[in-house]
Amino acid sequence: MNIQELETIKRLNLPIKFFILNNKGYGSIQATQKNYFDGFLVGSNEKSGMTLPNITRVAQAFGLKIATIDSQQDITKRIREILQAEGPLVCEVMISPNQTTAPEFLR
Ligand SMILES: Cc1ncc(C[n+]2csc(CCOP(=O)(O)OP(=O)(O)O)c2C)c(N)n1
Question: Where does 3-94 sit in CATH, by number?
Answer without folding.
Answer: 3.40.50.970
